[in-house]
């Protein structure tokens, strides 16, 4: 799986080999969600968001350019919606549209295994309907070192930016108090450098020429998309280093 990743610098997004527009309404929605949270008590936030317990930290944390993103943080991503590509803030851990409870507090919903896309009830309805791209400059994985857990950072060689396929959804509270977009990152068997470091999964680095094809979600069936992701990778070598 991909435990954490680094948000690229704003100017790096211009390196993406696709066209997209900035969704100002989605960014405004996130600001309104943050303001609502600030003005509400913890019990209300727990109730409206369907959390397991009262929150200890903000549920609408937005990572700044260059910062690390952890599950349930928000970060910029590209989604295809209404026939256009949009840059939107996405929570890194998917929240199904009609879920009454935020299961991300109990389960790992920030990564979707490629081999289970057509089996898992959370992912299957989104394949062939709601596709996106998550840009980042590096990613982090947990490994074992001398009997202890440690984090390794993987950075693509000779590249400022990498992009991985995601599935996305939009959730809104029953009373309409808040609403946000969220995503899950699709992972597969590890790249050689990731496997050598001791981890069994890694994000898919989609080939640049196939990014727009992936975003055109309805152009293939769900089984075809699974095969597409198996066969349309861009060769990349990673540098591995111990994370600070």
How is this structure best described in words?
This protein has 244 residues and is an alpha+beta fold. It has one domain: hypothetical protein yedk fold (Alpha-Beta Complex), CATH 3.90.1680.10. 18% of the residues lie in helices and 32% in strands. The protein is built from five helices and 13 strands. The protein has helices spanning 24-39, 42-49, 192-197, 211-215, 222-231; strands at residues 4-6, 21-22, 68-69, 74-81, 84-92, 111-113, 131-136, 138-145, 148-156, 162-172, 179-188, 202-203, 238-242. The strands form two sheets. Strands 3-1-8-9-13 form a five-stranded antiparallel β-sheet. The chain has a five-stranded mixed beta barrel with strand order 4-5-11-10-7. The longest helix is centred in the first third of the chain and has 16 residues, at 24-39. The protein is globular. It starts with a strand and ends with a strand. The relative contact order is 0.20. The mean pLDDT is 93.
């Amino acid at each position: 799986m991909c435990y954490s990743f680094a948000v690229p610098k704003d100017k790096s997004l211009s390196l993406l080999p696709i066209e997209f527009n900035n969704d100002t309404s989605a960014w405004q929605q996130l600001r309104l969600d943050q303001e609502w949270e600030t003005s509400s008590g913890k019990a209300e936030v727990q109730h409206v968001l369907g959390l397991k317990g009262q929150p200890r930290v903000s549920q609408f944390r937005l990572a700044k350019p260059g910062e690390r993103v952890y599950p349930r943080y928000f970060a910029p991503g590209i989604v295809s919606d209404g026939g256009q590509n949009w840059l939107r803030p996405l929570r890194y851990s998917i929240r199904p549209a009609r879920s009454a409870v935020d299961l991300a507090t109990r389960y790992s919903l920030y990564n979707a295994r490629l081999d289970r896309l057509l089996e898992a009830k959370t992912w299957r309805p989104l394949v062939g309907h709601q596709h996106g791209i998550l840009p980042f400059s590096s990613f982090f994985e947990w490994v074992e070192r001398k009997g202890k857990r440690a984090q390794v950072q993987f950075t693509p060689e000779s590249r400022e930016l990498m992009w991985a396929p995601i599935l996305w959804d939009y959730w809104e509270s029953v009373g309409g108090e808040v609403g946000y977009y969220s995503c899950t990152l699709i992972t597969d068997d590890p790249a050689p450098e990731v496997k050598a470091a001791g981890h069994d999964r890694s994000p898919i680095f989609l080939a640049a020429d196939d990014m727009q094809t992936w975003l055109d979600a309805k152009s293939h069936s769900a089984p075809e998309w699974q095969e597409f992701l198996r066969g349309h990778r861009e060769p990349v070598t990673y540098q591995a280093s111990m994370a600070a």
